[in-house]
């Protein structure tokens, strides 16, 4: 590449001003896409006359759409053969048509979200996958209530709602859980209203729960997609459970016993996924909900 052209101070100032204006315009458009005011169609149309929008990356456009996070945007772009750095102006006619088809419905159309239930033996790495999925923005991840005491670093309202036995009893009695189960001496439950509200808003929802609870969800909501996460090998699972500094020896032994029973439940599930690499698993889960 040759040296960049030498600009006079005035020309440099003008170029900087133009770049700042374009950035401002793109931020404004992204805000309108996020709020549902602009559809994909509208943005593609505007890009024909608005240089700032024409130069927006396709990835930015997709990620600004409600219900589309980083991973779903990437999956879509791969599906439509759009390179990761492609700008709107660089889209081919065929790609524009495909993008329009993909988002025919207005962005704020209320299709209920998909419900994905991630389950599998304790220690297989479900919560790491769930945390990663939450970061992508493709899923609303449910926070469960539990009677278990918080581990160090766990926060009330973020990792769990840590509640007393009496409060758990009350919620069971009032039918506030979509499902609940006992696991290793503690009770865990999924708050029903929060999950149903998110689905009705059109968000894809992820529950990260143990196997008995997953079966209950399927009985209530047959459209739920059940995913069983398997360890790459039994030895790996044992190593993970043994290595957990957060549990005492008795609890670890109990968890190992439980894990053996849990592994046998895979056949009940819609998909069985080996947890060999978090990013691969996250991509698969996003594709199951697309
Ligand atoms: P931990 O105590 O290690 O956080 O979780 C123990 C087990 O409870 C894990 O298998 C986890 O997936 C499961 N779990 C967490 N929340 C819920 C829930 O709301 N319902 C059910 N059935 N299981 C849950």
Note the topology.
Layout: H1 9-34, H2 40-46, H3 51-54, H4 58-64, H5 70-79, H6 93-102, E1 115-119, H7 126-136, E2 140-141, E3 145-146, E4 161-162, H8 165-173, E5 177-183, E6 186-191, H9 192-200, E7 205-208, H10 211-220, E8 225-230, H11 234-243, H12 249-263, E9 271-274, H13 278-288
Parallel strand pairs: 1-7, 1-8, 2-7, 3-4, 8-9
Antiparallel strand pairs: 3-6, 5-6
Helix pairs in contact: 4-5, 7-13
Guanosine-5'-monophosphate binds at residues 122, 126, 144, 148, 179-181, 183, 188-190, 208-210, 212-213.
Structural notes for this entry:
The chain is an alpha/beta fold and 290 residues long. The protein contains 13 helices and 9 strands. Helix 7 crosses helix 13. It binds guanosine-5'-monophosphate (5GP). Guanosine-5'-monophosphate (5GP) binds next to strand 5, strand 6 and helix 10.
Q: Indicate how many domains the architecture comprises.
A: 2
| SS element count, helices | 13
At CATH level 2, the architecture of the largest domain is 3-Layer(aba) Sandwich
Oligomer: single chain
List ligands, each type once.
guanosine-5'-monophosphate
The CA-CA distance between the termini, in Å, is 41 Å
CATH topology of the largest domain: Rossmann fold
Percent helix: 40-55%
Gross morphology = elongated
Integer-rounded radius of gyration: 23 Å
- Tell me the name of the CATH homologous superfamily of the largest domain: P-loop containing nucleotide triphosphate hydrolases
- The CATH class label of the largest domain is Alpha Beta
Task: Return the average pLDDT rounded to an integer.
Answer: 88
Strand content: 5-15%
Largest pleated sheet: 5 strands, parallel
Low-confidence segments: none
What is the structural class? Answer: alpha/beta
Biggest β-sheet: strands ordered side by side in the sheet: 2-7-1-8-9
Order of helices and strands: HHHHHHEHEEEHEEHEHEHHEH
